[in-house]
Write a structure and sequence with these properties.
single chain, seven-stranded mixed beta sheet, 31% helix, OB fold (Dihydrolipoamide Acetyltransferase, E2P), five-stranded antiparallel beta sheet, Arc Repressor Mutant, subunit A, alpha+beta, 6 domains
Length: 712
């Protein structure tokens, strides 16, 4: 393409995209429209790059060319220690890839505006940061390193790929090895490091509890309650008042229990069950009426909304509500009167709810049961336990019967159950991990899960048909691209899933999981199926729950530890009392979208903090086992290595560089690591022997090497 033709085509493209009748086109469509031959395609691509760089055209979210100023995207920049980054955009399935020379000086967690670029990195669209709109990270946690007349803070978050310079007068007296919180005062540029000042010294990095406290601060988890909040909590009575019981259904003579873990202190749900003469089950799910004590827009309520959820870390719980409420008047403790919201359901032999009532109630729990005790009664038929709880054993047996029916009903409609083991970490008083083992689901934990699920469904369906503002728990259908990739992959093993267009019904995934149960490829395909799923969230629109294969779902059963449950309890009570008039309906219609968004944000924050805590404790545990040999299962494969999960749930990496006997490369389509010369393959789900090679506590990672039989 000569200079004259170059300029003519440049002008043509600019005029074309500026025309009001122009329909945005991709590169291939532009080539066809402009009658560009295949031999000239590279020249057109270079021309489009030039126009993008000059800002005369832009790429929109669909990868089509539009006039400048259209379709600029805003999102959150996620840095990588290697210099490049990603931008997460709400509502967009895939992140955008930001090359190292296109970050525009953005810092980790900055709110940025981006423009799309024509290239792709793997499956991600490339983009460049046009401008930083707002710095998202105001403080960070790290380790202080003294260096004469100044110091540096080495961030715990490895995505922040640079140290923070701290002048001596702003160090707060920190010494080398202190874990500190540093407030950023400058974000740096090409020639200068970011600067900051130490605002809190958490303790020495080796002091007990400082490791978890560092995670608490890094995620901005609020620990202490403010004076106003505590004062309000103190004014809450220790026993329920006669006036509060007025007009409520009295269920104190109904046999009911709580079933929780041994260590649980905030007991917010109780269950009751009896069988009538017609063979119908009468299940009661009774939930602590927290909203009676946490009034809307009070200091307690504002703090609960800000926290969003209780956070369960390895050595502590950060509660949503002060202990005086969560462990006191709002806890359904044995033998005391408590206020509750009850979902009373009549269920037939097929697990269908034939009738129900949602009511404000007064309850009195007969026994505080543990999962262990109920498991011993139902699974082990332990005579000692059965004698101690003799009066309750018939109810437990009926509960097991009904739970099985409810589970079979969910299975019939296609509910998906990924049964991956969670970790249980046992620690000493200084927080050192002594043992890590899988947390086993038993008949008792499943029973409670089944009853909570049916109550949540029933409440959600009731309020959907009332057409009132509400907060639902929704789970969208999987992304079609991921499902298509899963479908193509499982055909290698002789399996298939039936698709309707590019969509899949949850029952198809459930059938797949049933077919692979007990096979060598079970772990492999289960993990890939899980990765194809989206994340559940809170919304004001009842769009259904894909994983549970149900049309209506909400969170009703845990108002002590989840704000959405507390929020909908208020709506339920106002509706029961006939107070949801036009003004209140409008009030909730305005308020609930932000409540749902905040609940989703704080849930993700809690999940990430909990995950990081578990990774930290696993790394600390494996430090004591370097050199030991274990058998594990390959749980992940990437271009940089093979991940192996041990029976105790610890996961480590065999780096591709230490795989023996060959040069290995990652076959992305087959999810395999393949030896170039030997053809040896490592597959997801394969059992391998590994030796613990190293642990990086700062990165919370464990490194393995492959352990061959001849090494023994």
């Amino acid at each position: 393409m000569d200079a004259k033709q170059w300029e003519r085509r440049k002008n043509l493209i600019c005029e074309l995209v500026a025309d009001d009748s122009y329909a945005p086109m991709k590169e291939k469509e532009l080539a066809a429209f402009m009658q560009v031959s295949k031999e000239e395609r590279d020249g057109l691509r270079e021309l489009l790059r030039t126009l993008l760089a000059e800002g005369k055209i832009r790429l929109n979210a669909q990868g089509r060319y539009v006039k400048p100023g259209e379709d600029r995207l805003v999102g959150t920049f996620v840095a990588n220690a290697k210099g490049f980054g990603f931008v997460e955009i709400e509502g967009r399935e895939e992140d955008l890839y930001i090359p190292e020379d296109r970050t525009g000086g953005a810092f980790h967690q900055d709110r940025v505006q981006v423009a799309l670029l024509p290239g792709r990195r793997a499956k991600r669209q490339e983009a460049e940061v046009v401008c930083v709109l707002e710095h998202g990270m105001k403080r960070l946690v790290g380790t202080y390193d003294h260096a004469g007349g100044f110091g540096f803070v080495i961030p715990d978050d490895h995505r922040v790929g640079t140290d923070i310079f701290v002048p001596k007068e702003r160090s707060k007296g920190a010494v080398t090895g202190h874990k500190v919180v540093v407030e950023l005062t400058a974000y740096g540029d090409g020639g200068h490091k970011p600067e900051g000042r130490v605002v809190e010294i958490l303790g020495h990095e080796n002091d007990p509890g400082v490791d978890i406290l560092s995670i608490v601060r890094a995620y901005g988890l609020p620990e202490e309650f403010g004076e106003k909040v505590l004062n309000q909590a103190e004014r809450v009575p220790e026993e329920i008042l006669e006036a509060d019981m007025a007009g409520r259904m009295d269920l104190r003579n109904l046999q009911m229990v709580t079933i929780d873990g041994e260590d649980a202190k905030d007991l917010d749900d109780a269950v009751s069950l009896y069988l009538d003469g017609e063979g119908l089950y009468h299940l009661g799910v009774h939930i602590a009426d927290v909203s009676n004590y946490v009034q809307e827009n009070s200091a307690l309520d504002r703090e609960a909304l800000a926290r969003g959820t209780s956070v369960y870390l390895a050595d502590r719980v950060i509660p949503m509500l002060p202990h005086r409420l969560s462990n006191g008047i709002c806890s359904l403790n044995q033998g005391v009167d408590r206020l509750a919201l009850s979902c009373l359901m009549t269920i037939d032999g097929r697990g269908e709810v034939t009738d129900y009532q949602i009511a404000e109630t007064v309850v009195r729990v007969d026994r505080r049961m543990t999962y262990t005790a109920v498991r011993k009664i139902l699974e082990e038929h332990d005579e000692t336990e059965r004698q101690e709880y003799e009066a309750l054993v018939p109810m437990f047996e009926k509960m097991e019967e009904l739970a099985t029916i409810l589970r079979e009903r969910r299975h019939r409609r296609g509910s998906i159950d990924f049964d991956f083991a969670e970790s249980r970490i046992l620690m000493d008083e200084d927080g050192r991990p002594l043992e890590i083992r899988p947390y086993e689901r038993s008949v008792a934990t499943k029973l409670i899960e089944d009853f909570m699920l049916i109550a949540n469904e029933t409440v959600a369906q009731h309020f959907f048909w009332l057409e009132l503002p509400f907060v639902y728990r929704t789970h969208e259908k999987p992304d079609p691209d991921r499902i298509m990739r899963l479908s193509a992959f499982i055909r290698n093993f002789g399996y298939h899933i039936r698709l309707t267009g590019e969509e899949v019904h949850p029952k198809e995934l459930q059938k797949l999981l049933d077919r692979i149960a007990g096979t060598d490829e079970e772990t492999l395909i289960s993990r890939l199926a899980l990765r194809s799923m989206k994340q559940a969230k809170y919304t004001v629109d009842c769009t259904g729950h894909f994983g549970l294969a149900c049309r209506y779902y909400c969170h009703f059963t845990s108002p002590i530890r989840r704000y959405p449950d507390l929020q909908i309890h208020r709506i339920i009570k106002e509706q029961l009392r006939g107070r949801l008039r036009e003004e209140r309906i409008e009030h909730y219609a305005q308020k609930l979208p932000e409540v749902a968004a905040q609940a989703s944000r704080t849930e993700r924050r809690a999940q990430e903090a909990e995950r990081e805590t578990v990774k930290l404790k696993k790394a600390q545990y494996m430090e004591e086992h370097i050199g030991e040999v274990y058998e594990g299962v390959i749980s992940g494969i990437t271009q940089w290595g093979v991940y192996v999960e041990l029976p105790n749930t610890v996961e480590g990496l065999i780096h591709v560089a230490v795989l023996p006997g060959d040069y290995y490369y990652y076959d992305e389509e087959a999810y395999e690591m393949v030896g170039r010369d030997t053809g040896r393959r490592f597959r997801l789900g394969e059992r391998v022997a590994v030796q613990v090679r190293d642990v990086d506590r700062a990165l919370r990672t464990v490194d393995f090497t492959l352990f061959e039989e001849e090494e023994m």
